[in-house]
Every structure is written in structure tokens, then in C-alpha cells.
Amino acid sequence: MLSRILAALPVLYLALVVRMTDAALAEPTRVLSSFKCLLDDGLAEHRICQYHNLVLYSAKFLYIYQGLDLPQLPEVVVNWHENITLEILPVHVSQVPQAWDPTQVILLESAVAGIGNTSRVYSGTSKRFRELYSSPDIQISNQFRQRMAECLGLTFQSPKPHGPYKVTIVNRRYASGRHMINSVTVAKNIRRMEHVASVRVIYLEDMSLKQQAQVYMHSHIIIFTHGAACGNVIFMSPGTAAIEYSWLPRDATPHNWTTEIISDLSLPITFVGLCTIDRRNIYPQKERYIYQSDYNALTSEEKLVLLEKGVCPQAPLHGCTDIVMNYAVDWSLLQPAVRLAMAQMHHQQYGIHILDADW
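Above: the chain's sequence. Below: its structure in C-alpha cell form.
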């Protein structure tokens, strides 16, 4: 059950800890009544609970250190709605049972996964994050990714400078929102471009972690919109390119999720961010709203703006947010982004480029 839950999460950042003794674990001092446990057999070390977009592990953890000085551990917020922090106890390696060899790779029995408002991608917290953490050396990042690929039984496939290039469009299911309405047309347009070997449209929802990793490793250009697909850039081969197409408000900094992951992990790939404020290509899911009683209370103008431009009314309307709108890609905006990605691969360069368009 635990492995299935964690495998379903996007690849972001995992904080891993070791359960040393039963005595080191205890029931949380504060009981959260606002969520339901998915698995609860009475043992704190087995309790997996879900709260909003988080998976929480309710227990104490040990942090094993080898130096002479007691480490100053950062505060880890696992649930900012309830102001719950992870309880971590520093323990010197000399106090660890002799049966455990700190030089060996071990299988961690307990892990915590999630993302909170202390993440560096949330507004106003980047500076605090940078004070605590620094990006790894690119050699370390490459070694980690290489070992990860070996663990999955996969290999990276970097593009040849002159191509041809393999392009993958990551789409989402219609009902989940952020579905690319014209993905087939976009794929046809890309196929007509020079130096293109193949184009495919895929959906990650039904793929295993290994299958998702293989898609990213074996693609030279990945096109996606804002969402969990951005986390998989960790699997992209050196010298490849990711293109993110978004219509979300600029103050939501939709590109930051991807650019921060690329920067923090020193990924040797190109990123092209493309955001448009043109609402003509937004397609709200009409069936989400028209059967609600609140919809009937809207004015004719509010209904028109919602259904034609995907702009939610000021009045309450359940489920109406930018994040669930479907969209059509404006080819006149995407084509230059694809050309830029190809140029970067041709010259064997990589970097972050923002091509946000105004309308």
C-alpha cells in the first residue's frame, strides 16, 4: 500500500529517514482530525495519512550524523494547514547499533514525501531555502541520475547535434483538466518541421514510474503544461530540451516549478517557458458548471465570459479555477519555442529561456 502511494507521487524531493528502534517512534503529540488515514493498523510507524496534496508519516525520526558537532536541522513543515512539523532526533553514528554499517547502502523502512509552503517554489520562501541548501555539483547530480537509470534498467539517449530529434507531447486526460485539445494537430505541425524524426502524444496517468522515466530518457524534446509532468525532467537525457506551455496568471510564476528543479539538481538540459495571457484558446469543461445551482444564479455576461474565455466569476462556483481549464495550443507561439529548443541541441548548449507572450 505504501509503495503504491509513494510511487504515484511526482518525482520532486524526498526526505528519507531510518527507523532504528521501536522506542524511537511515538504517536504524534497532536492528533489531526481533519483527514482520514488510508492505512491504520495501530502502529505509528505504519500510519499513512493523506491531507490535501500531502502524504504524511506520523512518527518520530532519527537523523544519523558522524561529525563532532550536533547538526542544526532545518524545520520541516509537513502540513502548513495545521502547523505540523516533522519531529527529528539527531543521533550520533556511535550510538547506532553495530549491526548497521553506515558505509553500506540500506533500504529505508520509513520515508516521508510531500511538499509544503517552506518549499523553495512558494513565493517568499526561496531565500530561506537557499540559506539552508545549495545546488549540488553537476558531477554529483550526473552520478546520482546515472545510478538511478541503472536501477531502473534504462539508459540515457542524448540527441545528435544535427538531429533528427524525437519529440514527445505529454497530454492530460480531459476530465483531469489542463488537457491539450488540439494535441493531434500540434503533433502534425511538428512533424512538418525539419530535423524531426518522430512525434508522439502520450498520457502519463496509466504509466508506471519506469515507463515514465523511459519516455523522458528517450525523448529529445518534451512538451507539457504546468503540472506533475514537470517533475519528471529529472529523467531527461543530457542535452535535451523541455518546453512548458502555460496560460496561468503570471503572478503564479508557473515556470518556477520546473526551472527550480532544473537549477537545484544542476540538470544539463534546456528549458523553454512559454506563457500566454490570451484567453481565446481556453476551453472550460462546460459539464462541470452548468448543472450547478450557483451557475443559474450568474448573470448572462458572467456565463458568457466563463464559457467563451474560461474566466471564473467573482461569485462562488464550485470547481472553477484556472488549473482545471482545458486549452488549445497557439501554434504561432509554440513553433518558435520548438525551433529554439532545436537550435540549443544543434549547438550543444543548454539553459533557461522564457518566451512569455502578451496579447
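The two ends are 48 Å apart (CA to CA).
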